[in-house]
Specification:
heterodimer; A: about 475 residues; alpha+beta; 19 strands; B: about 300 residues; 8 strands; about 10% strand; disordered C terminus
Chain lengths: ~475, ~300
């Protein structure tokens, strides 16, 4: 207590001195400078006093807990440290961690991205097309996250699109360790289907998503729902989990007026992972996504060349098997490291397909629809020297043969569904990137994209990805 | 039936029994794993998330580490944002309530020492600066003592049944440690005033302890790899203000230190940095023995009172 009193005395003495000095100072600017100094002095002393109080409290509790502690403390060589905590005012001390991701691209494409399609696959919406030609701003992501209380953590990722619209990419709450390895999550979040699906675009190793992600998950599957995950108490990493959601985006599909209380999408997933020696770490995952899209519509040009709207309703079942392996000499990734990643997808869809829902051409007709489709990608990224990485990716999809009731019964010709004609899209991509730090990355990517069955698209991308603010942590 | 019940009861109590046997501790860095071993002996099963060959700033949040955190009763880390890129993920993905930040099972060593190099202005144009100050606190052995005292309390809190054991082991450790610190301070007298160039700001606390001067860094900014132009500038600085050695740690790229060593004609010293960083650095005591021996090897002729610089 004595030390605190003397400190208070010292503080008031200093304050008094500062005031007398301030009285002598003539200019207004001098005065305001002095006031500023005084204010700083005051906050400094307030901090020191609160730190001292804290230490006093600690000392008291230590004494209260028993003589052992009290005896062991003086054994420490040095007197206790003066407070060294960074200054924060009470008003913003609890502000969530905030970070902002900025990215932009320059694209040079031999084919117009407006006409992009993946032949053989039901189109998944506009987002899967390559970035627009020439310069374009990517989505700017604003990330806010913090612990809510001892039980929950919250996170919001707002995506500001270049067309000035704002979307919620993720917004969820999560338990901070319930018990026995259980974690509950609720809100909108990237599903644990597949490996790359949970990674944010800025953490991808290439400018765009693998073709399999475009065709089977509409780039990335984020649903509104709940997730429960359990991590097993084993030395080898093992988790299993279940997600239930409303199936708001592809391969689900939002239909206006759809009203159901139950979940329209469900995901089951399991991961195993571990180390091989000190240099290698791996993770394997198997997941299954079930959705029941109602009126999932897409546009196609029918035999007469008229653009018609078709819609699928039924069941969609997707299996994803994938893994990642990371290698770095002695586990020190600073100099060189290698990352191998690959996933295989298999999807079955059964239900009905309605042709020309708006009756713009030959009139609305409905028939059965069934398809079995698959696809995979494999990629490797090698950091050959600090800051520089080189990567290669191979994509391949197999549309299989869709069975269309309307075509089989002869009601309509197959030429009315050109996009569903069997095809095996492929793509080869190479990229090189340079990272100035963990927070900045510049990338050059070249690709030959044969998603369309008529001619390949030769693509060149230049991209920057920068993150400002809080230091993010990236998942394995 | 009776036997069955006994078996069931034994199975249910097994985790409790195992816990009484030893607590699971995950240390983020080898120095804290070594300290837990000193203070807890066989009462704790300790695993270090990193080795001396790995840069603790840049670690992958590997599945194996999540599994370790999942089963940990105590996580002992440095804090001060050293592990900001991976530890938060390990904690949040583990589903383990015991070791979440703010719970007794989460221990941050940097909270218990006076941190140096706390930036007045936090801006990433200054490189990978830590708002909480320089996190490489254990290179000053007096900091290790402070952390040991706090860690002993924490161990006693988590595993109350063995509290007396932790306290007596800690008292014993601190006695031996104080004696060792006095010995090191005597041995290191010739190092006072010695100028060194460091790869990264890992040796700030060591330099402050021994009165050494850091006249430059191979990294142009913290966390930014050395560049030729920066090294050239550094060579010019060394012409004005010569250094006795260039020091680097096992996870630094040795080429930059080698380059400077050749051009400036000063020895390049690989310091173990942490336990396991060299053949000699087998525990905390031998870590400092070895570090000092390597530093002293660079000034064989220096007299204890020499070098007024």
């Amino acid at each position: 207590m004595f030390r605190m009193n003397s400190l208070l005395l010292a503080m008031s003495a200093t304050a008094a001195m500062s005031f007398s000095q301030a009285a002598c100072a003539a200019g207004d600017t001098d005065l305001s400078e002095l006031r500023e100094q005084l204010r700083q002095l005051k906050t400094q002393y307030e901090q020191r006093i609160s730190a001292l109080e804290q230490r006093l409290q600690q000392a008291e509790t230590a004494l209260g807990r028993g003589g052992e502690t009290a005896r062991s403390r003086p054994a420490a060589a040095e007197p206790s440290p003066p407070p060294a905590q960074p200054a924060r005012s009470a008003a913003n001390a609890f502000n969530p961690a905030m970070s902002l991701i900025l990215n932009g691209t320059y694209a040079r494409l031999s084919r117009d991205p407006a006409g992009y399609r993946i032949n053989g696959f039901v189109p998944t919406g506009g987002e899967v097309a390559p970035p627009e030609r020439s310069f374009s701003l990517g989505e700017s992501e604003l990330v806010l996250s913090a612990s809510i209380d001892p039980n929950f953590r919250g996170r919001l990722i707002a995506a500001i699109a270049p067309d000035n619209s704002v979307g919620v990419e993720e917004g969820y709450i999560e338990t901070l360790g319930l018990a026995s390895g259980l974690t509950l999550k609720a809100g909108r979040f990237f599903s644990a289907v597949g490996y790359q699906n949970e990674l944010h675009a800025h953490a991808w190793d290439f400018v765009d998503a693998p073709l399999a992600y475009k065709a089977f998950l509409g780039n990335q599957f984020a649903d509104d729902g709940v997730q429960v995950k359990w991590v097993a108490p084993t030395d080898i990493y093992l988790d299993v989990g279940l997600e239930l959601g409303r199936g708001r985006s592809f391969p689900g599909g939002s239909a206006a007026g759809r009203s159901r209380n139950g979940a329209a999408s469900s995901t089951l997933f399991a991961h195993v992972g571990g180390d091989i020696g000190e240099s290698t770490a791996w993770k394997l995952g198997l997941s299954h996504l079930r959705t029941s899209p109602q009126g999932r519509s897409y546009d196609d040009a029918d035999a007469s060349g008229t653009t018609v709207s078709n819609a699928f309703s039924g069941r969609s079942r997707l299996w994803a098997l994938g893994g990642v392996l990371k290698w770095a000499p002695n586990g020190n990734a600073t100099l060189t490291n290698l990352k191998l990643q690959g996933e295989y997808f298999r999807r079955r869809e059964e239900g009905s397909l309605t042709y020309d829902t708006a009756a713009a051409s030959l009139g609305t007709q409905t028939g059965s629809y069934a398809s079995r489709q698959s696809g995979w990608y494999a990629q490797g990224v090698y950091q050959f020297m600090p800051q520089w990485r080189l990567g290669y990716r191979r994509d391949r999809l197999n549309s299989g043969a869709s069975s269309l009731g309307l075509v089989d019964t002869g009601a309509l010709g197959a030429a009315n569904f050109p996009i569903l004609e069997g095809y095996k899209p492929t793509r080869s991509t190479i990229m090189v990137d340079w990272s100035g730090s963990e927070f900045s990355r510049l990338r050059l990517q070249l690709a030959h994209d044969r998603s369309r069955n008529d001619a390949g698209d030769r693509q060149l991308f230049l991209q920057y990805i920068m993150s400002l603010g809080a230091h993010g942590a990236h998942a394995f | 039936m009776n036997l069955l019940w006994k078996c069931a009861a034994a199975l249910m109590l097994m985790p409790v029994a195992l816990q009484a046997w030893a607590i699971n501790v995950l240390a983020c860095e080898p120095e804290w794993a070594a300290l837990v071993k000193e203070l807890a002996g066989d009462k704790a099963v300790v695993f270090s998330a990193t080795t001396a060959l790995q840069n603790p700033h840049h670690i992958e949040a590997r599945p194996s580490l999540i599994a370790r955190v999942r089963n940990a009763d105590l996580v002992v880390c440095t804090g001060a944002e050293l592990e900001a890129g991976w530890l938060p993920l390990l904690l949040s993905q583990s589903g383990n309530a015991r070791i979440q930040a703010g719970r007794p099972g989460y221990f941050e060593a940097a909270q218990f020492v006076t941190r140096l190099e706390i930036p007045e202005r936090v801006d990433r144009s200054q490189g990978d600066v830590h708002a909480g100050g320089n996190p490489h606190i254990h290179t000053d052995p007096r900091n290790v003592a402070k952390v040991a005292a706090a860690l002993a309390d924490r161990l006693a809190q988590i595993d109350a049944a063995n509290a007396a054991g932790y306290r007596s082991r800690t008292a014993d450790f601190l006695d031996r440690w104080q004696a060792a610190v006095r010995k090191w301070e005597q041995q290191a007298a010739p190092l006072k005033g010695m100028a060194v160039v460091a790869h990264h700001r890992e040796w700030t606390y060591l330099a402050a302890w021994l009165g050494m001067r850091q006249v430059g860094y191979l990294e142009p900014k913290p966390g930014v790899p050395p560049t030729p132009s920066h090294l050239a500038g550094l060579l010019q600085t060394l012409q004005r203000d010569p250094a006795g050695a260039v020091v680097y740690s096992p996870y630094n790229d040795p080429r930059a230190a080698g380059f400077l060593s050749q051009r400036a004609r000063i020895p390049a010293l690989l310091l173990p940095y942490t336990v396991g960083g060299s053949e000699g650095a087998k525990d905390l005591f031998s870590l400092f023995d070895d570090t000092l021996a390597r530093l002293l090897s660079a000034r064989p002729s220096a007299k204890p009172s020499a070098n007024p610089s």
